[in-house]
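This section describes the prediction task in plain terms. A model, or a person checking by hand, is given the sequence of a single protein chain and must write out its three-dimensional structure as a string of tokens. No templates, partner chains or ligands are provided. The sample shown here is typical of the held-out split.
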Amino acid sequence: MKTIRDVSDALRDSVTHQAIRQADLKALAGISQRTLTNVLSGKQDFKVSTLLALSDRLGFELVLVPKGVSAAVEAGPTAAPIVKSRVEAALERVRRAAEPGSIREQANSPKDMRQRMAAAFGREPLAQTPTSWSTRKAK
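The expected answer:
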């Protein structure tokens, strides 16, 4: 926004969008009806304190930014990047691996782990994981 008219238009649009009555807004902001009418018309200059009061009551925050940055602020949010980041790709791999029926999920099942451990130590796999070492039969 570069002119008083731009500021007035934004405030007026907010009043309309939020369906706030001017009588309620002037009471909340602590200004007269004449001042509110002048601000919303954009035809007269107004005090910064009036702008701060109205913008606060309408849910705005007054922020000053360098001129070079203002174009980016006015452009609004940017679109998500087309290329996935390394983190996004890694998270996707983890989610796929955790899906029911996935090859990785089956390979990491407790039964498969017991079979691999038994094969590594040259023993038969246990039916289930023992609760303590004393319940396991010695061979």
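For orientation: Helices lie at 4-18, 22-29, 33-41, 48-57, 67-75, 86-98, 103-107, 110-121.
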